[in-house]
Amino acid sequence: MLTALFCAAGAWAVALAPAQAQEAEALLSHQRPASASSVESADYTPASAAFDGDPGTRWSSQFSDDQWIQVDLGGQFDLTRVELVWEAAYATAYEIQVSADGTSWTTAYAESSGGGGSESITLDATGRYVRMQGLDRVGGYGYSLWSFDVYGCAAGGGSEVPDGPAEVEVIGSQGNWQLTVDDEPFTIKGLTWGPSPAEAAALMPEVAAMGVNTLRTWGTDASSLPLLDAAAAHDVRVMLGFWLLPGGGPGSGGCIDYTTDTTYKNQALSDITGWVEVYRDHPAVLMWNVGNESVLGLQNCYSGAVLEAQRNAYTAFVNDVAVAIHAIDADHPVTSTDAWTGAWPYYEANSPDLDLLAVNSYGDICGVEEAWEAGGYDRPYVVTETGPAGEWEVPDDANGVPDEPSDVDKAAAYTEAWDCITGHEGVALGATMFHFGTEGDFGGVWFNLYPGGNRRLSFYAVAEAYGGTAQANTPPVISGMDLGLDGPVVGGEEFTVDLDVADPDGDTLEYIPMVNSAYVNGSWDMLLADYTVNADGTIDIRAPEILGVWKLYVWVEDGHGNVGVESRSFEVTLPDVEGENIAQGRPAEASTFQEWGGHTPAAAFDGDLATRWASEWADDQWLRVDLGSRRDFDAVQLVWETAYATGYQIQVSDNGADWTTIHTATGGNGGADTLQVSGAGRYVRVLCTDRATEWGFSLYEFGVYT
After folding, report:
1. For 630-663, what is each residue's pLDDT tens digit?
2. Distance CA 110, CA 133 (A)
3. What is the tens place of the pLDDT at every residue in 118-171?
4. Contact, 282 vs 226, CB < 8 A?
5. What is the signed CA dihedral for 198, 201, 203, 204, rounded to 10 degrees?
6. CA–CA separation, 107 vs 95, rounded Å?
7. CA 199 to each of CA 174, 214, 226, 371, 393: distance values in angstroms, whole numbers, following the listed order
8. Rounded to an integer, what distance in angstroms lies between the CA atom of residue 355 and that of residue 346?
């Protein structure tokens, strides 16, 4: 083992005894984000090559003076020295510059007669960014460095210096296992991580205050480093994931033949082991997680005996990956996640080198212990996702869409899940519950503990389970929500929402109603509703005009960073039109239509809201109906699909050639347009002039009424 070095008066000194409590000097620049004024080749001589720890790779600039290369250390450090190893194209004059923000630079060292080779430069400076600014070159090439190593210690009150990898082990025997970190017992009290790693430094104090000691990711690459650094600074560890196709369970893409596709498997193995080598010494690493829900996901690609062969081949490949990881990293366990305990027999048969099993389980989390016992497994497990019952597990509501649990029920589900996990003593080693995400969209409201930076009841339930810091102010509690509807609501009409809300702290509350059309058109976006909050606390909502089942979400904020969210579905239907639809079933034509999708002109006149006409993707498209003879009418109804017209005209003709406009619309918003327009003619058409989307124009129905 190398003798430890310590920062002392801007330089470094040999440690004589542990009692000398100075900060240990460390290599700060390894694998840190790097940039340069130029590169000779982005593929062969990038800036990152000077910081990758590989003596056989190098950065090389373009062939001119005044070139620079810099590294972002990720935090403020007291800098003690820089080690430069030059290629033949070295600098005879250069400066070592430092910066706190990457914009304003201070020269910490200047060299006017450099001789190339290996140079060791003592520094007495503080900064986050360190730059070599080349001024004069030797020869006609650019500047080139095999390595650029920056050493230092934690600045006062600044970033912690990584102190090397923790030794993580699964110890014990059948039914009496334990996870240890540096020989200390460690129960995983975790969350899955959703935000960008770049946000980790700002969000990690919130995570740590919850009592969280572990975060889980699904992928690992160069962007993972800021997350690892922020986690290490707050004594939080990371379960680093590796994505394998077809990951993510139902609906995920990428069908791979694990019995024959050696090219994919070799590349995946190379990528995984490459990132293990990069991060294995980082102090935040807890373990490696190979794949996510692929045993389940393979059913989207294969069936029968072929599916069985693929599942066996996949789990055998996972074992190959585990063997390769163990060969280069003996300090961290390896697991593999799937969506159901029914995947465990495949791992048991084909993945003996996994240190522990893993499973994602929501509504059935309390059945995992029974499944483990019934399977007779000889390894412990960790729960890698859990929380309230998911969309795929709950019964449908009266409108035929999944009945989302209430805020109160979701919070209780996290508590119950943790009780069931910790109740399986000696076998369940903890959990990374789902999900520390900040999105406030359709999926985010279902699961995220921190949507829009607001804490929910579920946030506090997890914090209580993990022994986090108690908060003085907690969220509003919504115990009831009534839309006052006994059936569908006509698009554009109002309905009144009655909420039962109590705030434990007596805070003034703000109501923010949002609507979502995921069950109409697949969109996860939240749209601000057209609403009025009444004096009695009820809320008047104007229904959207697009047909189908929508969801209303009422966000109740207390002004202290807490929120309650409750949702209900409602169905938007067409307004009634008096009279006979004289266009239904009549012959129809269009300027264009998408024959491949069956979106013919006749589909807009068949009385079926499940079929539609769709034009090609261009403006100035038309759809017309032949009424058979000249007819008088006094109303037209257009029922638009998502691809609606913002501008259109209703026209009539007696001969199908000469047209008269009887109505012009601008600023159309889609949905159902019921137009009280009078006209007469044998032919009636809609001429669509302006599109709302990149697609064409599409109508479910085009009714002409008399």
Report:
1. 999 999 999 999 899 999 999 999 999 999 999 9
2. 9
3. 999 999 999 999 999 999 999 999 999 999 999 998 765 444 444 578 999 999
4. no
5. 130
6. 6
7. 41, 17, 8, 38, 32
8. 15
